[in-house]
Amino acid sequence: MRRSAAETAVGGHSGSFMRRLYRLPSKLIIGLFLLAVLIFTLFPLLVTVLGSLKTNAEVTAGGTLLPNEWRFSNYAEAWRQADFARFSWNSLFISSMTTIIALLISAMAGYVVNRRTFPGKRMYTALQASTMFISIGAVVLRPQFELIVAMNLNASLWGIILILLGSHAAVFFMIIGFYSAIPRELDEAATIDGCSFYGVFFRIVLPLLRPGLAVGALFQFRNAWNEYITPLVFTMTNPKLQTLTVGLANLRYGYNAATQTHLMMAGACISLLPILIVYIFANRSFMQVTAGSVKG
């Protein structure tokens, strides 16, 4: 027998209700999982911020999350003891110059690799990839140091910048992905209008690459800012060139050789501010990238 329209409507509504009911457990599981990830991500940060406002004895004893006495003076003391003004400038200079130069190199190299064919192209790309997946760590510190000494850069921040520039492969491949979204017809049209190879790159392609450059700048700046081993090794003989990450380690022990965990936490909170500022400025580019990825 043929079902009436009312029965069909009721049956469809019932089926839709059952499908939504079946989806509830999966949504609940996903929600609980995301909540757990959020808690595990933010809880250490919360403990650090609150610990930076406690006394050293209170941090060492533990047992309470909130400080009994809110000591905002810990930040001023950490800033004074670790010479944060000098170390912050060193870190800012190294991170900024490393980011600018790495973006320029990656953008130019990515443009040539994406738009041109030349002998050794595959080998160059493979070498760039190998620097990402093959980490030899401290093994290269000695030859790197000898190279910098031979170039008379061991008493300058430029020696550290030169070493850190070797880790730009991730930005290189990231920018190549953005080049794939820029039509080649723009290059051809600009060439027909009389633009040279460099004119096409700097006047046409580079402005369109702005979101990719912003994302790459965030990752490169963060890596350079958080680097510890390389600045530590290259500034052992010249403490005035130490970066903020190295200076934070100096807060571990005070003048009486007692552990100063509360000051280390305060210094760590201060060192997070530049990364947050860079992210705020790059957030718009992140939104552009996300919006472009869902167009269809």
TrEMBL record:
<dbReference type="InterPro" id="IPR000515">
    <property type="entry name" value="MetI-like"/>
</dbReference>
<feature type="transmembrane region" description="Helical">
    <location>
        <begin position="263"/>
        <end position="282"/>
    </location>
</feature>
<dbReference type="GO" id="GO:0055085">
    <property type="term" value="P:transmembrane transport"/>
</dbReference>
<protein>
    <submittedName>
        <fullName>Carbohydrate ABC transporter permease</fullName>
    </submittedName>
</protein>
<keyword id="KW-0813">Transport</keyword>
<keyword id="KW-0812">Transmembrane</keyword>
<keyword id="KW-0472">Membrane</keyword>
<feature type="transmembrane region" description="Helical">
    <location>
        <begin position="125"/>
        <end position="145"/>
    </location>
</feature>
<keyword id="KW-1003">Cell membrane</keyword>
<feature type="transmembrane region" description="Helical">
    <location>
        <begin position="28"/>
        <end position="50"/>
    </location>
</feature>
<dbReference type="InterPro" id="IPR035906">
    <property type="entry name" value="MetI-like_sf"/>
</dbReference>
<feature type="transmembrane region" description="Helical">
    <location>
        <begin position="200"/>
        <end position="221"/>
    </location>
</feature>
<comment type="similarity">
    <text>Belongs to the binding-protein-dependent transport system permease family.</text>
</comment>
<feature type="transmembrane region" description="Helical">
    <location>
        <begin position="157"/>
        <end position="179"/>
    </location>
</feature>
<feature type="domain" description="ABC transmembrane type-1">
    <location>
        <begin position="88"/>
        <end position="282"/>
    </location>
</feature>
<keyword id="KW-1133">Transmembrane helix</keyword>
<dbReference type="GO" id="GO:0005886">
    <property type="term" value="C:plasma membrane"/>
</dbReference>
<dbReference type="Pfam" id="PF00528">
    <property type="entry name" value="BPD_transp_1"/>
</dbReference>
<feature type="transmembrane region" description="Helical">
    <location>
        <begin position="92"/>
        <end position="113"/>
    </location>
</feature>
